[in-house]
Amino acid sequence: QDAVRAVRMEAARVLAGEPEARLSAEDRNAFEGALGEYIAGQHYNAAFRYLAYLHTFQQFRLADSICNACQ
Q: How far is the C-alpha of 36 from the C-alpha of 12, rounded, in Å?
């Protein structure tokens, strides 16, 4: 129930699995909210990494085109 999202996300990561079963009903509600934030953050990071990959791939294709044009 921390005010900082990163703290909540890390707590959800650590509590997932076995420790999750020992949470009270109130803590379980907080955990489920934090777990949702953690999963959303993982999806965002995955999409960002994919976009970075595409950008790098385009840069290599551009460089290859330039090199081929110079030959």
A: 9
